[in-house]
Fold this sequence. Notes:
Radius of gyration: 20 Å
Structural class: alpha/beta
Distance between the termini: 12 Å
Number of domains: 2
CATH superfamily of the largest domain: Medium-chain alcohol dehydrogenases, catalytic domain
CATH class of the largest domain: Alpha Beta
Largest sheet: 7 strands, mixed
CATH topology of the largest domain: Quinone Oxidoreductase, Chain A, domain 1
Number of strands: 15
CATH architecture of the largest domain: Alpha-Beta Complex
Amino acid sequence: MRAVAITTPQGIDALGFIERPDPSPGHRQVVVKVRAVSLNYRDLATIKSAGQRNLKLPLIPCSDGAGDVIEVGPGVTRVKKGDRVASIFFQAWLAGDLTPAQRQSALGGAIDGMLAEQVVLSEDGLVHVPEHLSYEEAATLPCAAVTAWQALVTRGALKAGDSVLVQGTGGVSIFGLQFGVMHGARVIVTSSSDEKLARAQKLGAANLINYKTTPDWEQRVLEFTGGEGVDHVVEVAGTIDKSLGAVRVGGFVNLIGALTGNRQADLGNMVAKQARLQGIYVGSREMFETMNRAIALHRMKPVIDKVFPFQEARQALKYIESGAHFGKIVISI
């Protein structure tokens, strides 16, 4: 079977196809025929920093994939041949709090990922996907969707009437918008593109802010919320000071990424607001399964910007690097 692998630490252009024997399952393992893989900024960062991180090469990247179970090993009870499944990000984080040992089970980083025609995984490292989703849609869920779900629902206890600020229109933020609307929350979206803001409005965003034309966007958030601030911030840019300015007293700032490279925060403002700054690192299988039940009930559809064929994996990664996408980028296998 074919796979895309990081063979040398030279970035996207050094990615290449490799041939490996078709995998065989061991005890409580299954073989999944991968139908689609979605990309995250984390995948791009892993590929570009492989040399600095001393990753064991060759490494198959990407954590998020969906496909069919085509073979099961002895002792398997959670899935059966023919089931439609998706990978979980941390293969060993099933429930509870994340442990240091479980952090070493991240697909496409600590261990080989999903950008291959076939993969062998523990039965514990899979979830069944909602029936109404295509393979491409299901492949978008393991990282970005679970991250937004943990931030807003598992930890934030999101409820009707809450207000949510999401930064940008990448995968995590668009899932945050969709989950906010699903729960009856008021969602405010920031972006540098008026076109993307218009698309976010069609998904249910209540208020829109172009942060290029409105650099003091935290003040606009306060205006939208009657001076109170929002209950939840999905912080992906690294603009923590501005997020603390936009959050209400006692609200949540969910630190998910720092795309601008800025990680500084005014701790005095954090104390004065009694704000809860929490780091979010994807989520457990239990969170994934709870989220899938909600997605199935509401028949929610993930937003896919573009689907690339397997042979254009490099182009797909360059597209996510450009930042031009709205929602998720998928590779069809």
